[in-house]
Amino acid sequence: MVQRILERGEIEALDHTSLPRLRLPELGGVFAPRAARLRELAAGKVAGIPVNPELSGYLLLMADMVSAQAETLATLNTSDAGLPDAATMERAQQHAMPPLAAFAPRGPAWRGILTTLLDKLDSVAARQIEISIVIAALRTMPVEELEALADAVIAQRIDGLNAAQAPFIAAALQVLWTYQASHLQQRQVPVLETGTLCPVCGSHPVASVIRIGGQSQGYRYLQCSLCSSEWHMVRVKCSCCEQNGKISYQGLGYLDAADDTAKGAAAPGNKANDPGKFARAETCDDCHGYRKIFNQEHDYNVEPLADDLASLTLDVLVCEAGYLRASVNPLLWLGNLA
């Protein structure tokens, strides 16, 4: 009997109950938990990610931003968000394209979201003059410049991008795309030819996470930097070039045993809840890129985007070792850290 090698997506299609290939965002399950996580990280309460005081202030600022995202999201309805029509959805299915393609022409809805978001950050601007300057500039920016800035953010073009303005633009775009993604059904999202881009919107992942519990137990998911969807990718496979022959994992030299105990870490020998195994960089010697991977087994409250943002020390060390970060964190726009 001749055996056929299954193509991408066919194994997952055999039994959708055993392996959820896609985890779509829930309206109340993205920004509020992310803001809470950022505040925990800033306070040094996440054992696997030590945060220096200089970064804590920025994490708190981004926590305020993400809280404003949650409040803004709650004001949206389907007419505001401009959900794709039936023809767009059908075309996506026929051509295995993301139904909410980030690079497709977008309407003005995101600019209204940006205005609401900036309004909700007025209290932050009132106590931080630097933020008030950025917000004032965004409020008066011509539409053409705003759209160009949004194009650069979606394309992750760092060169020439205003690093202070970009997180606000990214935050508004995230609200829109997360709202839209939350209204999809899994059957409406085709399997793409590449596993390195979000099947919902075509954006890059920000990080990956090994999930626990239920049907997702032990599986690795990439989290989209734009729409917050998560999609399955097998472990020990590069999320940049999809090769698997030269994968390594780099971690931070962690705190001593006394500090572990003080933070409530598991006793030695316990395979779960080990802070030293929570946050790692998955490096590839084929493409010399890397992306972080977080293990929920070692911290149940993992939030990939927030944890990626807070573990900047790991970025510095891995970049110094000669690897390039595969994609940006939408809340922090930096070049190569090496």
Automatic annotation (TrEMBL):
Compartments annotated for it: namely: Cytoplasm
An annotated GO cellular component of this protein is: cytosol
> Tell me, what does this protein do in biology?
Necessary for formate dehydrogenase activity.
Q: Would you say which domain of life the source belongs to? A: Bacteria
Family affiliation: Belongs to the FdhE family.
Report which residue ranges the record marks as coiled coil.
none
Q: Which UniProt keywords apply?
A: Cytoplasm
Positions of the FdhE N-terminal domain: 20-191
Q: Which CDD domains match?
A: FdhE
Among HAMAP family, the record links this protein to:
FdeH (MF_00611)
Pfam families named among the record's database cross-references: FdhE_C (PF24860), FdhE_central (PF24859), FdhE_N (PF04216)
- Entry annotated with the keyword Membrane: no
Entry annotated with the keyword Cytoplasm: yes
The protein's name is Protein FdhE homolog
Instruction: Write down the InterPro entries for this protein, in alphabetical order.
Output: FdhE-like_sf (IPR024064), FdhE_C (IPR056796), FdhE_central (IPR056797), FdhE_N (IPR056774), Formate_DH_accessory (IPR006452)
Protein's gene: fdhE
Supply one GO BP term: protein maturation
Name all FdhE C-terminal domain ranges.
236-332
Name where it mostly resides: cytoplasm
Q: Name one GO molecular function term.
A: ferric iron binding
Q: Which residues form the FdhE central domain?
A: 197-235
